[in-house]
Write a structure and sequence with these properties.
Elements (H helix, E strand, L loop, with lengths): L5 H11 L16 H19 L3 H7 L2 E3 L2 E3 L4 H10 L18 H14 L1 H20 L2 H13 L2 E6 L15 E5 L2 E12 L8 E10 L10 E6 L1 E3 L5 E4 L2 E6 L10 E6 L5 E6 L5 H37 L6 E7 L2 E6 L10 H33 L3 H37 L1 H4 L5 H8 L9 H14 L4 H15 L6 H30 L1 H5 L2 H29 L5 H18 L2 H11 L1 H5 L7
Parallel strand pairs: 3-6, 4-6
Antiparallel strand pairs: 1-2, 4-5, 5-11, 5-12, 6-7, 7-12, 8-9, 10-11, 13-14
The structure holds flavin-adenine dinucleotide (FAD).
Length: 605
């Protein structure tokens, strides 16, 4: 049974990344640890008691399609209603439209709990939030007032309609057409893989659709953004006639069965009426502005599912009795002789099982710290009163987003797989729930831009374009901050030294990569994912070392929270000695691994 890791979240927010710094931003002046605690406490209760109980049944039953629409699994309508009544959809919305405008960093912490307890459910509010942000940023005042209040309250949900059969990673190939019709447009085309494109949770669904206005230039510069409601919205805000947009089918897929993944048909008859958002031909640009938030939100899904996998595996390992774990009998002149305990014991006693669990726990902690740190940068980048501080934070946030998305989701898949390994054969059997976690998390490295696309973004747009300046600034800051970690706690000093070594190697790899980017971009692209992973591991290592410093400090000051702080130190110690050393190999790959990809196709026979 999933338990929300509220204490860990508080530790990261309050002690590690210092989210109290937000009080310097007028927009977030009311933010405090106390308000964050209250929100997290309520979110934990909702996740544990409302979302978790329908996660497994939703997977088994799945969303169901028929010609009149999509029926959600048992319990989802009630859960969604309670979600709205508790005010959760409005958490991130602007105050003008009924939103609570909480900072992204707190929103991210809360979303982890939705994503762990029920990933399929979480996607609906996430997509709605994406649509809300697009409307807030780019729609005209009349459009905002017509749509936002209902969406912010969760009475209507939103979708993102980008993908078409021939246009996945490459949105330049979008073919959906928009034909002027008075002040609006008629939309014609097919979209695929549309999350929550149809469902029975709300009376209306607002589709954000990428399409080409007739005569628009080819490629990315001819794509516009439209809002196409399932029921047309009259000027008084009341739903009007049914629009010409229909769900032709839903996909049968590996996981997230309760999330309907829809084939959407626009304009099979008179044409779907749509409202243009912002200016013509700037749709993709608008979408890119939205990407940071969406990619952060999918990134957290990776470690949120990793947390779920960890909790499942740890619970199993405590109760499954198998074999006699070895114990150190005595240490003579530095050499240990090994024996075994007298009777079979829970598998959590086996060193290799402990290794797997620690890999899961410590990697989740590193990912969580990384994602919340990135989220804080976005808040400061948006709201800090000082221009220079704002610009620096925004540049850092931009740099970190593809790392969060790529690293945290790839880690999530790995951890869910380890979770099955801890269960042994029973992990492969649906009963334990470990298999569902792996099936559910598997999509996170694919949607909202695959890991390959994230790494292109990282080295092309975020790293190459500024000549490596944002990354260099981060490397220097990490070096300084690590050198400043003083103290005599052995676990902390080891973690600090390991992190410093990793940061130095990241600096060296970045310089090598920058040279490749200048001379031979294909050589750089050939190692872009290993570089992304190296960034994630290293920044995670930096934050983990800082976490160890905080924990050691509190212990030295006589904190009574010894169990939690000791666990934190042990987790950091493991990360520094068994996870972070992957950076050594990745440095070699980034510096020397390109040729093997670029100069030969001989292996791909
Ligand atoms: C369950 C689910 C839900 C989804 N929800 C939505 C949604 O709500 N709205 C929506 O619009 N879409 C949605 N999608 C679509 C999703 O965003 C795309 O599947 C994804 O962007 C990848 O596109 P593709 O499937 O066409 O793969 P492709 O683009 O064909 O990619 C195939 C492989 O080629 C690699 N590749 C492609 N181009 C490059 C490149 N330039 N450089 C390096 N590698 C490259 C990819 O990394 C990948 O490994 C969803 C998909 C699924 C399965």
């Amino acid at each position: 049974m999933y338990r929300a890791p509220v204490k860990d979240l508080r530790f990261v927010l309050d002690e590690l990344i210092g989210s109290q710094a937000l009080q310097a931003c007028p927009e977030f002046a009311d933010y405090s640890s106390e308000t964050a605690d209250a929100v997290l406490g309520e979110a934990a209760r909702f996740a544990e008691t409302i979302l978790e109980p329908i996660c497994k049944s939703g997977d088994r039953e799945g969303a169901r399609w028929n010609a009149t629409g999509v029926t959600m699994p048992e319990g989802y309508r009630g859960a969604y209603q309670q979600f709205c009544e508790s005010g959760w959809p409005s958490l991130r919305g602007e105050a003008e439209f009924g939103g609570q405008n909480v900072p992204t960093v707190l929103g991210t912490a809360v979303e982890e709990l939705w994503a762990s307890s029920n990933l399929a459910f979480k996607l609906c509010p996430m997509l709605t939030q994406g649509a809300i942000e697009a409307i807030q940023r780019f729609a005209n005042p009349a459009q905002k007032h017509l749509f936002l209040p209902k969406m912010v309250r969760g009475e209507w949900t939103g979708t993102m309609n980008l993908t078409e059969p021939q246009a996945g990673s490459d949105l330049a190939q979008v073919r959906t057409r928009a034909v002027p019709a008075g002040p609006n447009y008629r939309i014609y085309g097919q979209k695929i893989f549309i999350t929550y494109g149809e469902h029975d949770l709300t009376e209306n669904i607002v589709h954000m659709v990428l399409a080409r206005i007739e005569g628009a230039p080819p490629g990315v510069r001819g794509i516009s953004l439209f809002m196409v409601p399932k029921f047309w919205v009259n000027a008084d805000g009341k739903p009007g006639p049914r629009n010409d947009v229909n769900c032709a089918s839903i996909e049968h897929k590996l996981g997230i069965h309760a999330s309907p993944t829809c084939v959407m048909m626009f304009g099979e008859n008179e044409g779907a009426l749509g409202l243009l958002i912002g200016e013509p031909n700037r749709g993709l640009e608008y979408m890119f502005v939205m990407m940071n938030a969406a990619r952060l939100s999918v990134g957290l899904e990776g470690y949120a599912q990793g947390e779920r996998a960890y909790q499942q595996a740890a619970e199993w390992a405590r109760s499954r009795v198998q074999g006699k774990p070895p114990v150190s009998l005595k240490k003579v002149a530095g050499s240990a002789s090994l024996g075994t305990s007298s009777s079979p014991a829970p598998i959590i006693g086996h060193p290799d099982v402990k290794r797997m669990l620690l890999t899961m726990k410590s990697t989740v902690e590193a990912c969580r710290a990384l994602a919340l740190y990135a989220a804080l940068q976005l808040d400061i980048g948006k709201a800090h009163p000082d221009d220079a501080v704002r610009a620096a934070a925004q540049a850092r946030g931009d740099l970190l987003i593809p790392i969060v998305k790529g690293f945290c989701t790839e880690s999530g898949v790995e951890l869910a797989s380890i979770g099955i390994q801890v269960h042994g054969g029973m992990g492969y059997i649906e009963e334990t729930g470990a298999a569902q976690t792996l099936r559910d998390v598997r999509i996170t490295t694919i949607y909202e831009g695959t890991t390959g696309i994230q790494s292109n973004d990282l080295i092309g747009r975020k790293f190459g374009r500024d000549g490596g300046a944002a990354l260099r600034a981060l490397v220097e800051e990490m070096q300084q901050s690590l050198r400043a970690l003083q103290g005599d706690n052995l676990q902390m000093t080891r973690a600090r030294d390991a992190a410093l070594d990793a940061v130095d190697r990241l600096g060296i790899a970045a310089t090598a990569l920058l040279q490749k980017l200048g001379n031979a971009p294909d050589q750089a692209m050939a190692v872009s994912v290993p570089f992304l992973k190296m960034c994630g591991l290293t920044i995670g290592g930096w934050l983990m070392a800082r976490a160890a410093h905080v924990a050691a400090d509190k212990l030295a000051q006589g904190s009574t929270d010894r169990e939690f702080l000791d666990a934190k130190l042990a987790s950091v110690h493991f990360y520094a000695t068994q996870v972070l050393p992957q950076v050594l190999a990745l440095e070699q790959v980034v510096r020397h691994g390109s040729d093997a990809v670029v100069t030969t196709d001989a292996a791909l026979i």
